[in-house]
Amino acid sequence: MAIARPIRVLGLLALGLWIFFFYQVFGRTRYPKGPGDTLEHMDRDPNLDPTGEPEGILHRVEEGYAPGPEGTARINATLLSLVRNEEIDGIVQAMQDLERTWNSKFNYPWTFFNDVPFTEEFKRRTQAQTKAECRYELIPKEHWAIPSWIDMELFEESAKILQENDIQYGSMKSYHQMCRWNSGLFYKHPALEHMQYYWRVEPKVHFFCDVDYDVFRYMADHNKTYGFTINLYDAPQSIPQLWPETMKFIAQHSEYLHENNAMNWLTDSDRRPEHNLKANGYSTCHFWSNFEIADMNFWRSQAYEDYFNHLDRAGGFFYERWGDAPVHSIALGLFEDASKIHWFRDIGYQHIPYFNCPNSPKCKGCVTGRFTDGESWLLKEDCRPNWFKFVGMG
Ligand SMILES: Nc1nc2c(ncn2[C@@H]2O[C@H](COP(=O)(O)OP(=O)(O)OP(=O)(O)O)[C@@H](O)[C@H]2O)c(=O)[nH]1
Ligand SMILES: *[C@@H]1O[C@H](CO)[C@@H](O)[C@H](O)[C@H]1NC(C)=O
Ligand SMILES: *[C@@H]1O[C@H](CO)[C@@H](O)[C@H](O)[C@H]1NC(C)=O
Ligand SMILES: [Mg+2]
């Protein structure tokens, strides 16, 4: 049967449109499907490259890391965990991972914090995981309490809005208190007075790779202020006023801006422009603070003290759900030399649902280069490509 020419042309056109349509919908993979796939703006995940120890001087077990006063090679540093008595199983598991991969060699003390006293069972079971000293500290009431200037009716109203926007834990008072304490108070606890560095550990996190050097002395010897493993986008609805408040602060205190700051990383709007828009100018990229190895002198600086007080007065720890992760990250990105921020690429780590899993024979139990074991849409929460681009790695 002969088909009239105009019909053939129309048929071809329709076919072409269908192909175009399917290409638009299925053809462009925006995010990687699994290990090895490419990321937008990141041709290759650096975690797939063979990863060894960082360069430069490293201090090792032979130098004197026995538990107790014999451990003369240790500096003033502690593993640090804010944790609830009910989370005993989770913290024991996290301790086992970190003791196995690192601390059984270096024996840094553990310091546990709680807003209520630790139970005897908590103390017994945690101390049983380590040869190092464990300290159990109560948070002073004035560090944990909701500040007097917070209007509790406004808090309840705001919590409803957070809930409507699906902001996890938005209506849970203690979650807001926890974020505030981690932002601006933990390092003021008297138990940390003589401590300079800390490694923050949460219940249920995993560590996968043997680390055979003193990471605290690495920080000190290489002038590092802050070490991270994972870099994420935040939910913009949890922090709409954080960046505007930060800009107000900067307008009054431009002297605190570091000349080598990470402003371009903080304000990126190329990748996920809608995040930047909803957060009023902040990319929402942050170092995921359930892991941090850091120098408390930065939090104790005048710049950070003034910044935290400004934010605290603005009320966003309660009326919004400002997390300690974006607060820490913005402060570091503005007031610190960006070269003092270190990606601990060699420390295999997981806090559900994200991983840092390097390509190294020292790692066991994670899939090299895997960013998440959750739903594939979580892959777009990865903000490492922005950081790598910013520091010239990608
Ligand atoms: N003592 C005490 N610790 C808390 C409280 N709320 C949170 N924490 C601790 O603070 C840290 C962060 O809390 P999480 O509940 O893990 O918050 P998150 O990591 O954002 O959320 P998850 O995805 O559920 O882990 C953990 O180490 C908790 O044990 C609290 O009210 N009291
Ligand atoms: C650790 O802190 C104590 C008390 O402040 C101080 O005397 C000591 O010199 C410090 N040690 C190191 C290695 O910095
Ligand atoms: C560390 O920083 C100090 C002060 O900024 C500087 O004097 C020193 O040379 C730095 N050391 C290294 C190894 O970068
Ligand atoms: Mg957690």
From TrEMBL:
InterPro entries in the record: Glyco_trans_15 (IPR002685), Nucleotide-diphossugar_trans (IPR029044)
A Pfam family that the UniProt record links to this protein: Glyco_transf_15
Keywords assigned by UniProt, alphabetized: Glycosyltransferase, Transferase
Region span, Disordered: 34-55
UniProt GO cellular component terms: Golgi apparatus; membrane
Catalytic center residues: 292
GO biological process terms on file: cell wall mannoprotein biosynthetic process; protein N-linked glycosylation; protein O-linked glycosylation
Single GO molecular function: alpha-1,2-mannosyltransferase activity
Composition bias, Basic and acidic residues: 38-47
PANTHER family: ALPHA-1,2 MANNOSYLTRANSFERASE KTR1, MANNOSYLTRANSFERASE KTR4-RELATED
The protein's name: Glycosyltransferase family 15 protein
Species: Amorphotheca resinae ATCC 22711
